Amino acid sequence: MSVVLQLDFKMDGPFGLEMAAQFKELAESINDEQGFKWKIWTEDAKSKEAGGIYLFDTKENAQKYLDMHSERLKGFGIDDVNAKIFTTNDELTRITNGPAI
């Protein structure tokens, strides 16, 4: 069993390739977080939203990352973060070709 952290927030940008260039170091640093497995980055420039779907090894590590990242986002002027933590159903995820869990 793994744990999914789903989060999103309003953001004025950047998006697309500009986002990739500006957030490269941030993306690289996430790889060093305790219990982190992977992240799918999400964005919608039209609605000015961004976020991600993360996979962690435990609920505790997901919560620890969420707490730290929420504080970091506040430093960027983003106060309203929508977040949920779920456990995975590995058997059903395998059947539907979900990412490595």
From TrEMBL:
Keywords: Monooxygenase, Oxidoreductase. GO terms for molecular function: monooxygenase activity. It holds the Pfam family ydhR. InterPro entries: Dimeric_a/b-barrel (IPR011008), YdhR (IPR014910). The keyword Oxidoreductase applies. NCBIfam families: PRK11118.1. This is Mono-oxygenase ydhR. It comes from Salinicoccus halodurans. The lineage of its organism: Bacteria, Bacillati, Bacillota, Bacilli, Bacillales.
